[in-house]
Amino acid sequence: MNLVETAQAVEAGKVSLGIELGSTRIKAVLVTDDFNTIASGSYVWENRYEDGVWTYPLEEVWSGIQQSYTQMAADVQSKYHASLKHINAIGISAMMHGYLAFDKNDDLLVPFRTWRNNITGQSADELTKLFDFNIPQRWSIAHLYQAILNHEDHVANVDFFTTLAGYVTWKLSGKKVLGVGDASGMFPIDEKTGTYNQDMLDKFNNLENVKQYPWQLADILPDILPAGKTAGSLTAEGAKLLDASGNLEAGSVMAPPEGDAGTGMVGTNSVRQRTGNISVGTSAFSMNVLDKPLSKVYRDIDIVMTPDGSPVAMVHVNNCSSDINAWANIFGEFANRLGIDLKPDRLYETLFLASTKADADAGGLVNYSYQSGENITKIQAGRPLFVRTPNSHFSLPNFMLTQLYAAFAPLQIGMDILVNEEHVQTDVMIAQGGLFRTPVIGQQALANALNIPITVMSTAGEGGPWGMAVLAAFAQRNTGESLEDFLDQDVFTNPESMTLSPEPEGVKGYRKFIGKYQSGLSVEAAAGDAISD
């Protein structure tokens, strides 16, 4: 579309909005019917560690959403001289899992417990054994059952619990629903029915320490919807929550809310069997759409769903880019002391390009980028840690390469299970996330770490909210077309992408790095024990 056509589309409301509440940023993306982004807005936030829990205040959820929307609407006005009054379809996505519990008066019972918490170890272990199905610590059911095991008073008053995306959609549309992908991070899904696994619901309800409560589990879980269905419409109250100016009209079709894993799959066109994608950010995860069930239960492999209900093997790690961001801030401060004002993209590009001069094994340097605990390596408390020996080759290039290697290390350890033990194969593995805004560098490091070709699309840095906008448009169309066909035939008609294959020397160097990394995990664990936060 040209500028005039885009302005006309905005005036007619022929646009879709995707909002994603990520771990470090809330972002709103507006797309036209041809799925081109025409405006965006964002809000930066950080989780807080309060009373032993990683959390975000709900007040900041709404102030962040409103700021993102306001910036996006201003972007529309500035570019197209058109006022945004009506939006065809809206979709909300957010970080998966976690625990938001409400009473019958819709009041929050305890502060939001995010995916980042690893405080549900007993619950996750007991439920995994009960169900013969892996229940990770971050899943909503693990949080609920841990609260039961802890004899928390609020459990008796739970009337509804959900994820962050489910909460926001509820407040915008009045519907207590979830997309099947996000729901699969609350409780296991039956692939055949597309609903919560009834046998596992019964097992949970029949636990002696659960019978005492006045609710049945199915009654306090959100309803499930697959991609393409509608989750009600934007109410007048919801429109005011989104747009503080009052310009936005009610009536927009609401898509089923999804988790960031689901939008990552959509944003990379990875919903067909034998496709896969990797999302990297504060956390990281790989999604492999299965063409057959795994042979057994793995504690480090989660079985979740695509937004249209196909099983996915998910490797999720709590830590990825936070430590890189912290070091980049230090280098940025140093540059400022020298009177040099480096914009973020330029700062990261400069640091990442330095790594191209590194030794293949990062000079023997080792880094642990654990801002929080890491389940996949059995680390309980995060203590970012950099280690070198007197004979290591300590240079800026090697330092930056070890940062990239460390960001991908827990993911690689989990992926080895799928590749080496289950022989899971994907026809394409597409990566997305802010680390790939600088071309080639992070992509090549990831290819070397996983020893597989990695593809990055031109939308790699902004895939999540854009993917949610696409799901919103899909819900608004409601044609009965399959999601995979819709993406292939209507959305990704001419995708721009680049694929990099592993470099033999890089693979060999990474293997040396990961050997040192795994040997030193006891040091990282000891740091968590010895150094209080």
From TrEMBL:
Domain of life: Bacteria
Ranges where the Carbohydrate kinase FGGY N-terminal domain occurs: 16-241
GO molecular function terms attached to this record: D-xylulokinase activity
Keyword Kinase: yes
Record domain Carbohydrate kinase FGGY C-terminal: where: 277-475
Transmembrane helix found in the keyword field: no
Stored Pfam families: FGGY_C (PF02782), FGGY_N (PF00370)
EC category name: transferase
Xref: Gene3D superfamilies: 3.30.420.40
EC number: 2.7.1.17
Similarity-based family: Belongs to the FGGY kinase family.
Protein's name according to its UniProt entry: Xylulokinase
Organism of provenance: Levilactobacillus tongjiangensis
